[in-house]
Amino acid sequence: MLVLSRKPGERILIGEDIAVTVVRIGPNTVRIGIDAPREMNIVRDELCDGEATQAELEKKNQKLAAQ
Predict the structure, then answer these.
(1) Which of 18, 41, 57, 64 could cross-link 14 (Cys pair, CB 3.0–4.6 Å)?
(2) Which residues contact 18 (CB under 8 A, 6 or more apart)?
(3) pLDDT band at residue 13 under the 50/70/90 scheme
């Protein structure tokens, strides 16, 4: 695992088409923004149970986004 220190507004580049930006740092949280190609699925780890299919992950993401 690579561990980097970043300040708000600073970015980490992954390859040529993914950028992770530190948006805000709070007392117990860090907000990040992810710029990636639209066809790339980005899912929080706690939503993955190891057996979920791509369609199931997209359905969970859409449901959570609607809340």
Answers:
(1) 18
(2) 34, 35, 36, 37, 40
(3) very high
Residue reference for tokens 């369609």: 55
50 backbone dihedrals φ, ψ, rounded to 5° = 90, -20
Say how many Å lie between the first and final Cα of the chain, rounded. Answer: 33
CA gap 66, 62 in Å, rounded: 6
- pLDDT tens profile 36-59: 998 888 888 777 766 666 777 777
Q: Which two tokens stand for residue 55?
A: 């369609």
CB 12 within 8 A of CB 20: yes
Helix/strand/coil for 30: strand
pTM for the structure as a whole = 0.67
